[in-house]
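hey so i finally got around to running the thing on that chain from the lab meeting. sorry it took forever, my laptop kept dying and i had to restart like 3 times. anyway pasting the input first so we r on the same page abt which one it is
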Amino acid sequence: MLTLALAAAGCEQRRDVGPVIVSATGDAARPEAIRRTSDDMAERLLADASAQGLVRFDAAGQIVPGVAERWIVTDEGRTYIFRLREMTWTDGRRMKAADVVAILRRQLQSRARNPLAPYLTAIDSIVEMTPQVIQIELSRPRPDLLKLFAQPDMVIVDPTRSIGSGPMRISDRRGRVARLTPIPDPDRAADEREEAQPEDDVLLVGERAAAGIARFVTHRSDLFTGGTIAEWPLLAAAGAEPASIRLDPAAGLFGLAVVNREGFLEAAENRGAIALAIDRTTLVQSFSRDWLPTEDLFPAALDSAVPPAQAPWRVVPANERRAAAQAKIAAWRARGEPPPALRIALPNASGGTLLWARLAADLYAVGVRPIRVGPEDDADLRLVDAVAPYDSARWYLDQACQPCGESASAAIEAARLSPTLAERARKIAEADAAVAEDVAFIPIARPLRWSLVAQRLRAWRPNERAWHPLNQLRRDPT
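ok and heres what got predicted. didnt touch it at all, straight out
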Protein backbone atom coordinates (compact mmCIF):
# COMPACT_ATOMS: atom_id res chain seq x y z
CA MET A 1 0.00 0.00 0.00
CA LEU A 2 2.72 2.46 1.00
CA THR A 3 4.90 1.50 -1.96
CA LEU A 4 2.05 2.05 -4.40
CA ALA A 5 1.23 5.43 -2.90
CA LEU A 6 4.82 6.60 -3.20
CA ALA A 7 5.13 5.28 -6.74
CA ALA A 8 1.88 6.87 -7.90
CA ALA A 9 3.03 10.20 -6.57
CA GLY A 10 5.82 10.35 -9.11
CA CYS A 11 3.56 10.17 -12.17
CA GLU A 12 2.82 13.90 -12.45
CA GLN A 13 2.73 17.22 -10.64
CA ARG A 14 1.37 16.69 -7.14
CA ARG A 15 -2.42 17.01 -7.03
CA ASP A 16 -4.65 17.15 -3.97
CA VAL A 17 -5.37 13.44 -4.01
CA GLY A 18 -4.19 10.64 -1.76
CA PRO A 19 -2.22 10.93 1.49
CA VAL A 20 0.08 13.86 2.07
CA ILE A 21 3.66 12.65 1.66
CA VAL A 22 6.20 14.32 3.95
CA SER A 23 9.94 13.76 3.88
CA ALA A 24 12.37 14.67 6.66
CA THR A 25 15.81 13.61 7.84
CA GLY A 26 15.87 10.67 10.24
CA ASP A 27 14.01 7.39 10.70
CA ALA A 28 10.25 7.82 11.06
CA ALA A 29 9.51 4.10 11.35
CA ARG A 30 11.73 3.26 14.32
CA PRO A 31 9.41 1.80 17.01
CA GLU A 32 10.96 3.73 19.89
CA ALA A 33 10.97 7.03 17.97
CA ILE A 34 8.11 8.68 19.88
CA ARG A 35 9.55 8.01 23.35
CA ARG A 36 13.16 9.05 22.92
CA THR A 37 14.78 12.44 22.52
CA SER A 38 16.23 12.91 19.08
CA ASP A 39 17.56 15.65 16.83
CA ASP A 40 16.21 13.82 13.77
CA MET A 41 13.38 15.87 12.26
CA ALA A 42 11.43 12.77 11.17
CA GLU A 43 11.38 11.35 14.69
CA ARG A 44 10.39 14.70 16.20
CA LEU A 45 7.53 15.06 13.73
CA LEU A 46 6.37 11.53 14.48
CA ALA A 47 6.42 12.21 18.23
CA ASP A 48 4.52 15.49 17.87
CA ALA A 49 1.86 13.94 15.62
CA SER A 50 1.19 10.79 17.63
CA ALA A 51 1.81 11.93 21.22
CA GLN A 52 0.90 15.51 22.09
CA GLY A 53 2.00 17.27 25.25
CA LEU A 54 -0.06 19.33 27.67
CA VAL A 55 -0.13 21.96 24.92
CA ARG A 56 1.11 22.00 21.35
CA PHE A 57 2.01 24.37 18.52
CA ASP A 58 -0.41 25.10 15.69
CA ALA A 59 0.55 25.84 12.07
CA ALA A 60 1.44 29.44 12.96
CA GLY A 61 3.64 28.42 15.91
CA GLN A 62 1.06 29.54 18.50
CA ILE A 63 0.12 27.61 21.66
CA VAL A 64 -3.10 25.57 21.41
CA PRO A 65 -4.63 22.84 23.64
CA GLY A 66 -3.07 19.41 23.66
CA VAL A 67 -3.78 16.94 26.44
CA ALA A 68 -4.93 19.97 28.45
CA GLU A 69 -8.07 21.73 27.23
CA ARG A 70 -7.41 24.90 29.25
CA TRP A 71 -5.04 26.31 31.85
CA ILE A 72 -4.38 29.24 34.13
CA VAL A 73 -1.08 30.78 35.23
CA THR A 74 -1.02 32.50 38.60
CA ASP A 75 1.39 33.90 41.19
CA GLU A 76 3.52 35.71 38.57
CA GLY A 77 4.17 32.49 36.71
CA ARG A 78 4.89 30.27 39.71
CA THR A 79 1.73 28.14 39.48
CA TYR A 80 0.29 26.41 36.42
CA ILE A 81 -3.07 24.63 36.66
CA PHE A 82 -4.12 22.45 33.72
CA ARG A 83 -7.56 20.94 33.17
CA LEU A 84 -7.18 17.82 31.04
CA ARG A 85 -9.46 16.85 28.22
CA GLU A 86 -11.39 13.58 28.10
CA MET A 87 -8.54 11.82 26.34
CA THR A 88 -7.75 8.24 25.46
CA TRP A 89 -4.50 6.60 24.47
CA THR A 90 -4.40 5.42 20.87
CA ASP A 91 -5.23 1.88 22.09
CA GLY A 92 -8.54 3.16 23.50
CA ARG A 93 -7.64 3.25 27.20
CA ARG A 94 -8.67 6.36 29.11
CA MET A 95 -5.89 8.79 30.00
CA LYS A 96 -5.95 9.97 33.61
CA ALA A 97 -4.33 12.87 35.41
CA ALA A 98 -2.29 10.38 37.44
CA ASP A 99 -0.83 9.02 34.18
CA VAL A 100 0.16 12.49 33.02
CA VAL A 101 1.70 13.41 36.38
CA ALA A 102 3.81 10.24 36.49
CA ILE A 103 5.05 10.73 32.93
CA LEU A 104 5.96 14.40 33.46
CA ARG A 105 7.82 13.55 36.67
CA ARG A 106 9.76 10.86 34.83
CA GLN A 107 10.70 13.36 32.10
CA LEU A 108 12.08 15.76 34.67
CA GLN A 109 14.07 13.01 36.34
CA SER A 110 15.61 11.96 33.01
CA ARG A 111 17.58 15.18 32.71
CA ALA A 112 20.44 13.48 30.88
CA ARG A 113 18.09 12.58 27.99
CA ASN A 114 15.98 15.75 27.88
CA PRO A 115 17.66 18.76 26.18
CA LEU A 116 15.09 21.06 27.80
CA ALA A 117 16.09 19.98 31.33
CA PRO A 118 18.30 23.04 32.03
CA TYR A 119 15.26 25.28 31.47
CA LEU A 120 12.91 23.27 33.70
CA THR A 121 14.90 23.43 36.93
CA ALA A 122 12.41 25.86 38.51
CA ILE A 123 9.71 23.14 38.63
CA ASP A 124 9.26 22.10 42.26
CA SER A 125 6.28 19.77 42.09
CA ILE A 126 3.72 18.20 39.75
CA VAL A 127 0.61 16.92 41.52
CA GLU A 128 -2.80 15.50 40.68
CA MET A 129 -5.52 17.79 42.07
CA THR A 130 -8.49 15.82 40.67
CA PRO A 131 -8.82 13.05 38.03
CA GLN A 132 -8.93 15.86 35.42
CA VAL A 133 -6.72 18.59 36.95
CA ILE A 134 -2.97 18.78 37.55
CA GLN A 135 -0.96 21.56 39.16
CA ILE A 136 2.66 22.47 38.55
CA GLU A 137 4.43 24.57 41.18
CA LEU A 138 7.65 26.48 40.47
CA SER A 139 10.22 27.89 42.86
CA ARG A 140 10.82 30.86 40.56
CA PRO A 141 8.44 32.62 38.13
CA ARG A 142 8.44 31.31 34.58
CA PRO A 143 5.50 32.82 32.65
CA ASP A 144 6.99 31.57 29.36
CA LEU A 145 6.91 27.88 30.28
CA LEU A 146 4.10 26.84 27.91
CA LYS A 147 6.34 26.92 24.84
CA LEU A 148 8.61 24.37 26.50
CA PHE A 149 5.64 22.12 27.27
CA ALA A 150 4.69 22.32 23.56
CA GLN A 151 8.04 20.93 22.36
CA PRO A 152 8.21 17.32 21.03
CA ASP A 153 10.63 16.57 23.89
CA MET A 154 7.71 16.99 26.32
CA VAL A 155 5.04 14.83 24.66
CA ILE A 156 3.00 12.51 26.91
CA VAL A 157 3.94 8.92 25.98
CA ASP A 158 2.87 5.71 27.74
CA PRO A 159 6.30 4.30 28.75
CA THR A 160 5.27 0.65 28.51
CA ARG A 161 3.39 0.75 25.21
CA SER A 162 5.20 3.62 23.46
CA ILE A 163 1.91 5.21 22.41
CA GLY A 164 0.42 8.67 22.82
CA SER A 165 -2.99 10.29 22.39
CA GLY A 166 -2.77 11.81 18.94
CA PRO A 167 -3.86 14.00 17.22
CA MET A 168 -2.85 11.22 14.82
CA ARG A 169 -2.15 7.54 15.25
CA ILE A 170 0.44 5.37 13.54
CA SER A 171 -1.67 3.09 11.37
CA ASP A 172 1.16 1.37 9.49
CA ARG A 173 4.95 1.14 9.28
CA ARG A 174 6.95 -0.07 6.30
CA GLY A 175 10.71 0.34 6.06
CA ARG A 176 11.42 4.03 6.67
CA VAL A 177 7.80 5.10 6.18
CA ALA A 178 5.12 5.60 8.83
CA ARG A 179 1.48 6.16 7.94
CA LEU A 180 -0.39 8.53 10.26
CA THR A 181 -4.18 8.74 10.42
CA PRO A 182 -6.13 11.54 12.19
CA ILE A 183 -7.93 10.71 15.43
CA PRO A 184 -11.36 12.39 15.84
CA ASP A 185 -11.41 15.15 18.45
CA PRO A 186 -13.03 13.68 21.60
CA ASP A 187 -14.47 17.12 22.45
CA ARG A 188 -16.45 17.28 19.22
CA ALA A 189 -19.84 15.58 18.96
CA ALA A 190 -19.97 12.62 16.58
CA ASP A 191 -22.45 14.34 14.25
CA GLU A 192 -20.13 17.38 14.00
CA ARG A 193 -17.05 15.41 12.95
CA GLU A 194 -16.04 15.54 9.32
CA GLU A 195 -15.79 12.26 7.49
CA ALA A 196 -12.20 11.12 7.16
CA GLN A 197 -10.66 11.32 3.69
CA PRO A 198 -7.58 9.60 2.24
CA GLU A 199 -6.04 13.07 1.84
CA ASP A 200 -6.09 13.51 5.63
CA ASP A 201 -3.55 10.72 6.15
CA VAL A 202 0.17 11.50 6.16
CA LEU A 203 2.98 9.26 4.93
CA LEU A 204 6.09 10.33 6.82
CA VAL A 205 9.34 9.27 5.15
CA GLY A 206 12.58 9.38 7.10
CA GLU A 207 15.62 9.68 4.81
CA ARG A 208 18.76 11.64 4.00
CA ALA A 209 18.26 15.28 3.05
CA ALA A 210 19.51 14.73 -0.51
CA ALA A 211 17.00 11.92 -1.02
CA GLY A 212 14.19 14.02 0.44
CA ILE A 213 14.97 16.97 -1.83
CA ALA A 214 15.17 14.68 -4.86
CA ARG A 215 11.83 13.11 -3.89
CA PHE A 216 10.17 16.52 -3.79
CA VAL A 217 11.57 17.93 -7.04
CA THR A 218 10.48 14.76 -8.88
CA HIS A 219 6.92 15.27 -7.53
CA ARG A 220 6.97 12.20 -5.29
CA SER A 221 6.27 14.13 -2.09
CA ASP A 222 4.38 17.21 -0.91
CA LEU A 223 6.80 18.49 1.68
CA PHE A 224 10.44 18.33 2.66
CA THR A 225 10.78 20.03 6.03
CA GLY A 226 13.50 20.87 8.52
CA GLY A 227 16.03 22.18 6.01
CA THR A 228 19.10 23.98 7.43
CA ILE A 229 22.12 25.78 6.07
CA ALA A 230 23.87 22.40 5.73
CA GLU A 231 21.56 21.27 2.90
CA TRP A 232 20.85 24.63 1.26
CA PRO A 233 23.20 24.25 -1.78
CA LEU A 234 21.43 21.00 -2.70
CA LEU A 235 18.34 23.00 -3.71
CA ALA A 236 20.10 24.61 -6.67
CA ALA A 237 21.80 21.35 -7.60
CA ALA A 238 18.44 19.56 -7.63
CA GLY A 239 16.69 22.32 -9.59
CA ALA A 240 14.08 23.12 -6.93
CA GLU A 241 11.52 25.68 -8.09
CA PRO A 242 12.00 28.99 -6.20
CA ALA A 243 8.24 29.22 -5.55
CA SER A 244 8.33 25.98 -3.56
CA ILE A 245 11.20 27.10 -1.28
CA ARG A 246 9.71 28.61 1.88
CA LEU A 247 11.81 30.20 4.64
CA ASP A 248 10.79 30.44 8.29
CA PRO A 249 11.50 33.65 10.26
CA ALA A 250 13.12 31.39 12.84
CA ALA A 251 13.99 32.86 16.23
CA GLY A 252 17.27 31.56 17.59
CA LEU A 253 21.03 31.77 17.16
CA PHE A 254 23.32 31.49 14.18
CA GLY A 255 26.87 32.55 14.93
CA LEU A 256 30.23 31.57 16.34
CA ALA A 257 30.70 30.70 19.99
CA VAL A 258 34.20 31.25 21.39
CA VAL A 259 34.96 27.84 22.90
CA ASN A 260 38.71 28.29 23.46
CA ARG A 261 39.71 31.48 25.27
CA GLU A 262 43.46 31.01 25.10
CA GLY A 263 46.12 32.59 22.91
CA PHE A 264 44.78 35.22 20.53
CA LEU A 265 41.20 34.75 21.76
CA GLU A 266 42.12 35.37 25.40
CA ALA A 267 41.47 39.11 25.09
CA ALA A 268 37.93 40.40 24.48
CA GLU A 269 39.25 43.01 22.02
CA ASN A 270 40.78 40.24 19.89
CA ARG A 271 37.51 38.31 19.96
CA GLY A 272 35.91 41.55 18.82
CA ALA A 273 38.37 41.71 15.92
CA ILE A 274 36.97 38.42 14.60
CA ALA A 275 33.45 39.84 14.86
CA LEU A 276 34.59 42.93 12.92
CA ALA A 277 36.15 40.85 10.16
CA ILE A 278 32.95 39.05 9.14
CA ASP A 279 31.01 40.65 6.29
CA ARG A 280 27.55 39.48 7.35
CA THR A 281 25.62 40.96 4.44
CA THR A 282 27.77 39.30 1.79
CA LEU A 283 27.75 36.03 3.73
CA VAL A 284 23.96 35.69 4.06
CA GLN A 285 23.25 36.87 0.52
CA SER A 286 25.54 34.17 -0.85
CA PHE A 287 22.84 31.80 0.43
CA SER A 288 19.56 33.73 0.03
CA ARG A 289 18.46 37.34 -0.34
CA ASP A 290 15.64 36.55 2.09
CA TRP A 291 18.08 35.60 4.85
CA LEU A 292 18.83 38.62 7.03
CA PRO A 293 22.03 39.25 9.02
CA THR A 294 22.07 40.33 12.66
CA GLU A 295 24.62 41.71 15.10
CA ASP A 296 22.59 41.24 18.30
CA LEU A 297 22.42 38.21 20.57
CA PHE A 298 18.68 38.67 21.26
CA PRO A 299 16.12 39.13 18.44
CA ALA A 300 14.22 41.54 20.73
CA ALA A 301 14.17 42.58 24.38
CA LEU A 302 12.29 39.35 25.26
CA ASP A 303 12.15 39.17 29.08
CA SER A 304 15.01 41.61 29.62
CA ALA A 305 14.37 44.99 31.25
CA VAL A 306 16.09 46.86 28.41
CA PRO A 307 16.71 46.48 24.65
CA PRO A 308 19.52 44.09 23.57
CA ALA A 309 23.01 45.16 24.63
CA GLN A 310 25.61 46.07 22.02
CA ALA A 311 29.10 44.62 22.05
CA PRO A 312 32.02 47.11 22.01
CA TRP A 313 32.92 46.26 18.39
CA ARG A 314 29.46 47.42 17.25
CA VAL A 315 30.49 51.11 17.51
CA VAL A 316 32.92 50.75 14.57
CA PRO A 317 31.25 51.94 11.31
CA ALA A 318 30.68 49.18 8.75
CA ASN A 319 33.10 50.69 6.21
CA GLU A 320 35.90 50.80 8.79
CA ARG A 321 35.53 47.35 10.30
CA ARG A 322 37.97 45.43 8.14
CA ALA A 323 40.69 48.00 8.74
CA ALA A 324 39.97 47.93 12.48
CA ALA A 325 40.27 44.14 12.50
CA GLN A 326 43.52 44.30 10.55
CA ALA A 327 44.90 46.79 13.09
CA LYS A 328 44.12 44.39 15.96
CA ILE A 329 45.92 41.57 14.15
CA ALA A 330 48.88 43.84 13.40
CA ALA A 331 49.12 44.78 17.09
CA TRP A 332 49.15 41.08 17.98
CA ARG A 333 51.96 40.43 15.46
CA ALA A 334 53.92 43.42 16.76
CA ARG A 335 54.31 41.55 20.06
CA GLY A 336 56.29 38.91 18.20
CA GLU A 337 53.36 36.51 17.91
CA PRO A 338 52.73 34.43 14.76
CA PRO A 339 49.57 35.06 12.68
CA PRO A 340 46.63 33.77 14.72
CA ALA A 341 45.40 30.37 13.55
CA LEU A 342 41.81 29.59 14.54
CA ARG A 343 40.01 26.25 14.25
CA ILE A 344 36.38 26.72 13.19
CA ALA A 345 33.95 23.82 13.73
CA LEU A 346 31.37 23.69 10.92
CA PRO A 347 28.91 21.11 9.52
CA ASN A 348 30.34 18.39 7.29
CA ALA A 349 28.02 19.24 4.39
CA SER A 350 27.87 21.36 1.26
CA GLY A 351 26.29 24.22 3.17
CA GLY A 352 29.12 24.07 5.68
CA THR A 353 31.59 24.32 2.79
CA LEU A 354 29.88 27.41 1.38
CA LEU A 355 29.83 28.99 4.83
CA TRP A 356 33.50 28.10 5.29
CA ALA A 357 34.41 29.79 2.00
CA ARG A 358 32.84 33.07 3.12
CA LEU A 359 34.28 33.00 6.67
CA ALA A 360 37.74 31.95 5.46
CA ALA A 361 37.86 34.76 2.89
CA ASP A 362 36.97 37.36 5.52
CA LEU A 363 39.48 36.05 8.07
CA TYR A 364 42.35 35.66 5.58
CA ALA A 365 41.73 39.27 4.53
CA VAL A 366 42.55 40.57 8.02
CA GLY A 367 45.54 38.30 8.67
CA VAL A 368 43.95 35.34 10.47
CA ARG A 369 44.68 31.77 9.32
CA PRO A 370 41.39 29.82 9.61
CA ILE A 371 41.38 26.03 9.90
CA ARG A 372 38.20 24.09 9.23
CA VAL A 373 37.38 21.22 11.59
CA GLY A 374 34.37 18.95 12.03
CA PRO A 375 31.42 19.82 14.27
CA GLU A 376 32.57 17.46 17.05
CA ASP A 377 36.32 18.23 16.83
CA ASP A 378 38.32 20.41 19.20
CA ALA A 379 37.94 24.00 18.04
CA ASP A 380 38.46 27.65 18.90
CA LEU A 381 35.21 28.85 17.33
CA ARG A 382 32.15 26.64 16.94
CA LEU A 383 29.05 27.32 14.87
CA VAL A 384 25.87 27.55 16.94
CA ASP A 385 22.82 27.03 14.71
CA ALA A 386 19.70 26.50 16.82
CA VAL A 387 16.06 27.54 16.93
CA ALA A 388 14.99 28.88 20.33
CA PRO A 389 12.54 26.49 22.04
CA TYR A 390 10.91 29.40 23.88
CA ASP A 391 11.09 33.18 24.08
CA SER A 392 13.40 33.70 27.03
CA ALA A 393 16.65 35.62 26.99
CA ARG A 394 18.08 33.02 29.31
CA TRP A 395 18.16 30.44 26.50
CA TYR A 396 20.16 32.82 24.28
CA LEU A 397 22.60 33.61 27.09
CA ASP A 398 23.02 29.94 27.94
CA GLN A 399 23.70 28.95 24.31
CA ALA A 400 26.10 31.85 23.76
CA CYS A 401 28.29 31.05 26.77
CA GLN A 402 30.48 28.11 25.81
CA PRO A 403 32.05 29.36 28.07
CA CYS A 404 31.82 33.00 29.20
CA GLY A 405 34.04 34.92 31.54
CA GLU A 406 33.43 34.70 35.29
CA SER A 407 31.43 37.92 35.57
CA ALA A 408 29.14 37.03 32.67
CA SER A 409 28.60 33.49 33.99
CA ALA A 410 27.77 34.84 37.44
CA ALA A 411 25.28 37.31 35.96
CA ILE A 412 23.51 34.54 34.02
CA GLU A 413 23.23 32.40 37.16
CA ALA A 414 21.85 35.36 39.11
CA ALA A 415 19.18 35.83 36.43
CA ARG A 416 18.23 32.15 36.61
CA LEU A 417 17.75 32.29 40.38
CA SER A 418 15.84 35.59 40.53
CA PRO A 419 12.77 35.24 42.79
CA THR A 420 10.57 37.84 41.01
CA LEU A 421 9.88 38.79 37.39
CA ALA A 422 11.08 42.36 37.93
CA GLU A 423 14.39 41.23 39.39
CA ARG A 424 14.76 38.57 36.71
CA ALA A 425 14.33 41.21 33.99
CA ARG A 426 16.99 43.39 35.59
CA LYS A 427 19.40 40.50 36.05
CA ILE A 428 18.91 39.34 32.46
CA ALA A 429 19.73 42.86 31.27
CA GLU A 430 22.90 42.79 33.38
CA ALA A 431 23.84 39.36 32.02
CA ASP A 432 23.23 40.49 28.44
CA ALA A 433 25.51 43.50 28.96
CA ALA A 434 28.19 41.28 30.54
CA VAL A 435 28.08 38.75 27.68
CA ALA A 436 28.23 41.56 25.09
CA GLU A 437 31.25 43.13 26.84
CA ASP A 438 32.88 39.70 27.09
CA VAL A 439 32.39 39.04 23.33
CA ALA A 440 31.71 35.39 24.09
CA PHE A 441 29.53 34.97 21.00
CA ILE A 442 29.74 36.42 17.48
CA PRO A 443 26.23 36.78 15.98
CA ILE A 444 25.87 36.43 12.22
CA ALA A 445 22.18 35.90 11.40
CA ARG A 446 19.00 34.18 12.48
CA PRO A 447 18.93 30.42 11.88
CA LEU A 448 18.30 29.55 8.23
CA ARG A 449 15.30 27.18 8.27
CA TRP A 450 13.42 26.25 5.14
CA SER A 451 11.00 23.77 3.62
CA LEU A 452 9.95 22.63 0.16
CA VAL A 453 6.17 23.02 0.07
CA ALA A 454 3.69 21.82 -2.57
CA GLN A 455 0.71 23.99 -3.48
CA ARG A 456 -1.76 21.48 -2.05
CA LEU A 457 -0.52 22.24 1.48
CA ARG A 458 -2.63 25.36 1.86
CA ALA A 459 -2.47 25.40 5.67
CA TRP A 460 1.37 25.49 5.84
CA ARG A 461 2.52 28.68 7.57
CA PRO A 462 6.00 30.13 8.18
CA ASN A 463 6.62 30.81 11.86
CA GLU A 464 9.31 31.70 14.40
CA ARG A 465 9.41 28.17 15.84
CA ALA A 466 10.12 26.73 12.35
CA TRP A 467 7.71 23.95 13.29
CA HIS A 468 4.99 22.51 11.04
CA PRO A 469 2.57 19.97 12.62
CA LEU A 470 1.66 17.10 10.32
CA ASN A 471 -2.04 17.38 11.12
CA GLN A 472 -2.16 21.00 9.94
CA LEU A 473 -0.69 20.94 6.46
CA ARG A 474 -3.84 20.80 4.33
CA ARG A 475 -6.49 21.29 7.04
CA ASP A 476 -7.16 19.98 10.54
CA PRO A 477 -9.79 17.25 10.07
CA THR A 478 -9.97 16.51 13.80
